[in-house]
Amino acid sequence: MRILIADDEPVSLRMLEKTLQRAGYEVTAVRNGREAVEKLCHSDGPRLALLDWMMPELDGPAVCREVRSRRGQSHVHLILLTSKNSKQDVVKGLASGADDYLVKPFDPEELKARLHTGLRILQLEDNLLEAREEMRYKATHDALTALLNRGTIVELLARELTRTRRENGCTIAVLGDLDHFKLVNDTHGHLVGDEVLCEVARRLLGSVRSYDFVGRYGGEEFLLVLNNCDAKMSMQRAEEIRAAVCQSPFVTSRGPMSITLSVGVIASRDREHLCVEELLCEADRALYSAKAAGRNCSRLA
Amino acid sequence: MCEENSFVPNDSLIEEFMDLPELLARVENDRELLTELLVMFRNELPELQNALHDAIDLGDLAQAAKVAHTLKGMSANMSLRRGTSLITEIEAAAKSGDIPVLTKRLVALDTEITGLSAAIDALTVGTQ
């Protein structure tokens, strides 16, 4: 674990440095408050710090205040280590944003125990952030295919429409529906159906650029949002995506299967008056035209 | 080499000025580090001592309190006995503007520093 120590007094700095190195810390030592802030506010900076109170340029409490206001989400555990030992000083130090307060001269065992407490708090924070990220992912992605879920892909389409209209660009929405998918489920079971959906997701992702979006719109329906496109290329892109899905048989636990996709595609250019729901409605109509035309084909809205 | 330069046989020389068992516990019985810190401390003392005198001579008690505070932290870290008490009193006197106490304690501190510096020099000769 990396730790920053800030103290303008060399004897104290060296004593701390050696104690912490012996305890297994990777120590960064600085001799003024400004330098401490710069190191701690760096995105990859230490998350544990021992700060003297009186230092040139910025004192310990000022360092705490600045780190708290600049560092953002990631918590830094700040401990003031100072000769100031009155109750008022302790209150003032903690009020500035310090997490803990130790009075010089330090006792090595107590120092290590306090740092251990700091590490526990940082670990707890990491666990919470990880859990939050996991929840965010689950709330925005489809559990089976790991594609974006319906709410997220529609929200992204709305955002892209706003952006491309502002920039006088064009977004293409591609709505695809697997042909006769109910038959796959009814004949081979839902687990095989799930295998097919996952493989479709993989093929769709492989057919677009890294900055396009692919989502599961419904049971066997998929919505793709293609950014910064030429409206004239809409049909060509739709056909490429459709072909990418159908190009080769799907290998499933019940053997190879031919799966096809019907596609409705719409470009936002010249449809500035349409909101996202209306645009999707048009794409849906085009999709049904494709189905009516015998499936395994694309139709432009 | 380290053994030759260490002060193990002469601990009594500095024990008059500092609580050696306490200091050794603080450095986790690392005698090499202790020697290094004593040399550093010895080298820092004259500058801080002069700064304290200058501030008092100029009547800048705020600056005197600030220097005394730094000295106090250093002395406490090095487990000085009388030194830490004297500097604590000097810091308090500078803050309250008690010039007579300040002057008296400063004289005592100078004497303490002279003795301490000589003891450290004797112990760490050849390490600086």
Shape of chain A: elongated
Proportion of residues in β-strands of chain A: 15-25%
Relative strand content of chain B: under 5%
Which structural category do the helix and sheet elements of chain B fall into?
mainly alpha
Mean pLDDT of chain B: 89
The level of helicity of chain A is: 40-55%
Structural class of chain A: alpha/beta
How is the topology of this model organized?
The complex is a heterodimer of chains A (301) and B (128).
Chain A: E1 2-6, H1 10-22, E2 26-30, H2 33-41, E3 48-51, H3 60-70, E4 77-82, H4 87-95, E5 100-103, H5 108-140, H6 150-166, E6 172-178, H7 181-188, H8 190-206, E7 213-216, E8 221-226, H9 234-246, E9 250-252, E10 255-257, E11 261-267, H10 276-292, E12 298-300
Parallel strand pairs in A: 1-2, 1-3, 3-4, 4-5, 11-12
Antiparallel strand pairs in A: 6-8, 6-11, 7-8, 9-10
Chain B: H1 2-5, H2 11-15, H3 20-26, H4 31-57, H5 61-77, H6 82-96, H7 99-124
Helix pairs in contact in B: 4-5, 4-7, 5-6, 6-7
Overview of the structural elements:
The complex is a heterodimer of chains A (301) and B (128). A five-stranded parallel β-sheet of chain A has the order 2-1-3-4-5, sandwiched between helices. The mean pLDDT of chain A is 95. Chain A is 49% helix and 19% strand. Chain A has ten helices and twelve strands. Chain A has helices at residues 10-22, 33-41, 60-70, 87-95, 108-140, 150-166, 181-188, 190-206, 234-246, 276-292, and strands at 2-6, 26-30, 48-51, 77-82, 100-103, 172-178, 213-216, 221-226, 250-252, 255-257, 261-267, 298-300. Chain A has 301 residues and is α/β, with parallel strands linked by helices. The longest helix of chain B is centred in the middle third of the chain and has 27 residues, at 31-57. Chain B has helices spanning 2-5, 11-15, 20-26, 31-57, 61-77, 82-96, 99-124. Mean pLDDT of chain B is 89; it is low at 1-7. With 128 residues, chain B is mostly helical. Chain B is 79% helix and 0% strand. Chain B is built from seven helices and no strands. Chain A binds chain B through residues 8-12, 14-15, 18-19, 22, 52, 54, 82-84, 104-108, and chain B through 25-28, 30, 33, 36-37, 40-41, 44, 66, 69-70, 72-74, 76-79.
